[in-house]
């Protein structure tokens, strides 16, 4: 899945809760903070509010649990 598809889903889908495997979108999972910041910035510009955000990290992947309000 591409970043554009993810952003589209976060903004326009009816779904409010997401579990995003960041390793699907970036190669270096230790740079996940830049990815999260970029997505948050896009959501803010789109007037989508984040009501819950939690990062779960292990040695192989980073999961971002996210709940949004539109």
Q: What is the strand and helix layout of this fold?
A:
Blueprint: H1 3-12, E1 17-21, H2 32-45, E2 49-57, E3 62-69
Antiparallel strand pairs: 1-3, 2-3
Describe the protein in words.
- By secondary structure, the protein is an alpha+beta fold.
- The chain has one domain (3-69).
- Helices cover 34% and strands 31% of the residues.
- The protein has two helices and three strands, in the order H-E-H-E-E.
- The chain has helices at 3-12, 32-45, and strands at residues 17-21, 49-57, 62-69.
- Strands 1-3-2 form a three-stranded antiparallel beta sheet, with helices on one face.
- Strand 2 (49-57) and strand 3 form a beta hairpin.
- The chain is globular.
- The mean pLDDT is 94.
Tell me the domain tally: 1
Order of helices and strands: HEHEE
Overall geometry:
globular
Please count the helical segments: 2
Report Rg: 11 Å
Strand content: 25-35%
Terminal CA distance: 22 Å
Short synopsis of the structure:
This protein is an alpha+beta fold and 70 residues long. It has one domain.
Keywords:
70 residues, alpha+beta, three-stranded antiparallel β-sheet, 2 helices, 3 strands
